[in-house]
Amino acid sequence: MRRHFQQGRGELVAGLTVGAVGTLLYALTAEPSVSWWDCGEFLSTSHLLQIGHPPGAPLYSLLAHLCMLLAGDETAHVAIFSNMLSAVAGGATGMFLCWSIILLVRRAGYGSNGKGQMGTLLAGVVGGLSYVFCDTAWFSAVESEVYALAMLFPAAVLWSALRWAEERNPRWLWLIALLTGMGFCVHMLSLLALPAVAWLVVAEIIRNKQERQVAADGNDDAPNAGAIGKNTRATGKQGLARTLLFALLFFLIGLTPLLVIPIRANAHPPLNEGDPSNLESFVAYMRRDQYTHAPLYPRLWRIRNESEMAYYGSWCANPATPSFKDNAEFFIRYQLGYMYLRYFMWNFSGRYNDRQGFGTLQNGQFITGYPFLDRMLVGTGKRPPNSCQPSGHHVYFMLPLLLGLLGVFSHWARRKDDRGFVLVLFLVSGVGLSLYLNHPCYEPRERDYAYVLSFYAFAAWIGLGAAATDEWLRKRTKGPWRHLAILCMGVPLMMACQNLNNNNRASRRIPRDVAANYLDNCKPNAIIFTYGDNDTFPFWYLQFVEGRRTDVHIINVNLLASDWQQHQTATRLLRERTPFLPLDGEHRPMGDVWSDILRKNAIGDSALLRPVYFSHYLRDRYGLLFEGHLQQVGFAYEYHPYVCDTLDCELMYANITSSQWSDMEGAYVDETSRRFLATYWSGVISLSENLLSHGDTAGAAMALAKTFNDVPPMLLDDLRIPLRAGQLLILTGEKPLGQSLLQQVRTSCREQLDYYSTIRPAWQAYIPYVLLPLREVEHFFVKNTSSTQ
Length: 789
Description:
This protein is 58% helix and 3% strand. By secondary structure, it is an all-alpha fold. The strands form 2 sheets. A 5-stranded mixed β-sheet has the order 4-3-5-7-6. Strands 1-2 form a two-stranded antiparallel ribbon.
């Protein structure tokens, strides 16, 4: 094997093919606008080079900003050009994995003596595509999030480390240092690759010393003796010091994008989270001081209320006064088993659905595709019917897992240095990261994206498993049969087909439409208080990117506890001469903070000079504090200083009938989208009932019919909503439409009850959130059979 390995044409084509396939696939399935969670924030901060949440992602913002320039004056196209950055980065990550697998295969001796060249390339393509098509990687590569770009840097670092191991040229180490620094300016995920790089470097140094000793003993036939002699001059103390000095220099050069943060903060952009404009605030920003930091121990560290205490109790015996055994049990069962192994099995075994799991029987559980095993995991081996909205239902029959395990065992028996290289990467980015993150008992969303580097490492083993399969067949078969290893390509292709249903967002604009209708519900120059990411960040996107409803002032109450947000909010409200809200009373969570902020610019009059609104999430959390003062006008709730009705029929009717929605036919509707759409439909039903009670049948019919066409009610999880919609359609004179909807509800209800009846009765007690609404619907049809005929 040559020390100075030069990448051949076959390897180059294989890697570029994987990269091109991944980029094209991601580009074709990318969301055309803003997505949920942090995407709206990243779009807003990148478009105007503003300051996002700590510790920032300045290199991502700069690169995304460059991509956005391609949209020109078409602000509606800014998001898709930004999403393309993730698509290209995701494809390039698969390319580097392909090249890394080819190097690992060659170093391990698969296809030695020039044989098995096609098997080597096959291994790289199978492993690279297995990562490209895996659910977690695909999810991040079709939206404006940092994780696709963040994965590109460790992928390039790991490939560079293998190239250094082949050539022993310090320039590869300097490239690693540069890439690590640059990766840190996107996400700290890049740092997780360093232990694997350190393992390889130390192992190669030890091997180098051993081979130099052999060469010094006069054995000219020793492997790589010539290359060793050539590189001996660079291995002394002087050469080591030079290498380390240049590595430090390149690492610092890689960190230079961090300078963008204080520079832009001093420009005081509208979004300036943490205000890192001086050294003290910049250090606090980089340390993420505004967030609660999880300790390494204890594992049961955040119990805020009785419901969380009960949830901890479902994972360990004694959450109130936990012992070391309780902490260990919680780590093994929940943090390692549920919050890591479940995600791992999603990508390489199968997934039941895309609903967030909280330890429940079927929500977000992994599956295998084998009925006898799935009955132990989700209570049944049958596929859920389409009426269950089974998006995210993937079945791989554990084939990626088995091929990867074959790669683990075959590689372990071959190359001690490299097996440790991949193993350290897998464990540090999996088990090690789980130890560091110390997940609390409740997370607002699934966290599989945090472990994507661990899945990357396992995809490398999948490629090595393909190489082992090829070698085994070549040794035992002749003629065309020796090429049967090409069947390993079926593994990534199966993953692609299975994962397409919930990763194809090409026709989904629901987050943007929800945010637009929210803001359009507000009167001119309004203030809207929001809670959480999904009813804040899409609003920011519309204002800062598309320039829509910039007159509305958005205040996220989650951020109000921080000094910088209090100062920025108070400064803006003072500039706009907005009076405070009368939030008097005791024992009101966040109430004191709101009052302190808004009282600073009080003008001596408690009358509201600007309309004030609450988002739905905020109303759900703090609505009781303002009981009798919140009036629904659509998505939003308007605050009044006097006691008012719970619903403004006239204004809400105007907002509903003027709402704008993109076509949802064929669009992927995820769980978060379904929650927002269910909220919208619940409001329309309340409006229709009020209009009917006041004799306005035509108005009720108009609101129902428009919403029926804009937001098909059968997209929702809870069949009680389309059931009630169908009833109201009949009452308003839309009898054919109402009866058709009721018939769909009845068919879906029977399908689902038949499906859930396959679960053992003892296990049905774990899914009351599904069965109780279904039984209510079935009870209605039993009592009113004639109404659906």
